[in-house]
């Protein structure tokens, strides 16, 4: 299942702008965590990355007056595979998870590696490594 398909599955159950997308491993397997937001609600949706089954969804009412980050358009960003390749130039090893999210005013892929206590932030538009968190 591709990231686009995971977001489409999440949109089948909840409306909203894409705020973050994560690919990670849980006890039940590899999943996408999709965060969607409207002016009234925030939805966290979990989709099985293998078969596309909707595993969980939670809706919270938006109480804050803080505007959400700009919506993420997957057609505007580099592929996660390219972001992982950029991160691998800094740390060579298997990727544990990645998250496409806003951080410090920019859209980044945050890439975590198995057995490492470091996170690499890769600019989601250019593929440049922009931060190394130790």
Question: How would the blueprint of this fold be written?
Answer:
Layout: H1 3-13, E1 17-26, E2 29-37, E3 41-48, E4 54-61, H2 80-88, E5 95-103, E6 106-113, E7 119-123, E8 129-133
Tell me about this structure:
The chain is mainly β. The chain has 2 helices and 8 strands. The chain has helices at 3-13, 80-88, and strands spanning 17-26, 29-37, 41-48, 54-61, 95-103, 106-113, 119-123, 129-133. Strands 4-3-2-1-5-6-7-8 form an 8-stranded antiparallel β-sheet, with helices on one face. Strand 2 and strand 3 form a beta hairpin. The longest helix has 11 residues, at 3-13. The chain is globular, with a radius of gyration of 15 Å. The protein starts with a helix and ends with a strand.
Distance between the termini: 31 Å
- Sheet/helix structural class: mainly beta
Radius of gyration: 15 Å
- The proportion of residues in beta strands is over 45%
Number of helices: 2
Mean pLDDT: 93
User: In terms of per-residue confidence, which ranges show pLDDT below 50 for 5 or more consecutive residues?
Assistant: none
Largest sheet: 8 strands, antiparallel
DSSP, total strands: 8
Roughly what percent helix? 10-25%
Please provide the ordered H/E string of secondary-structure elements: HEEEEHEEEE
Shape: globular
């Amino acid at each position: 299942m591709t990231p686009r398909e995971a977001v489409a599955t999440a949109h089948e159950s909840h409306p909203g702008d894409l705020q973050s997308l994560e690919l990670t491993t849980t006890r039940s397997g590899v999943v996408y965590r999709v965060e969607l937001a409207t002016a009234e609600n925030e939805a966290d949706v979990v989709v099985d990355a293998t078969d596309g089954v909707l595993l969980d969804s939670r809706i919270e009412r938006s109480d804050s007056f803080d505007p959400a980050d700009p919506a993420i358009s997957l057609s505007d960003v580099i592929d996660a595979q390219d972001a992982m390749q950029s991160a691998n130039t800094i740390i060579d090893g298997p990727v544990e998870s990645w998250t496409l999210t806003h951080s410090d005013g920019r859209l980044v892929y945050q890439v975590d590696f198995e057995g490492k206590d470091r996170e690499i932030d890769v600019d989601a538009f250019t593929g440049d490594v922009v931060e190394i968190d130790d």
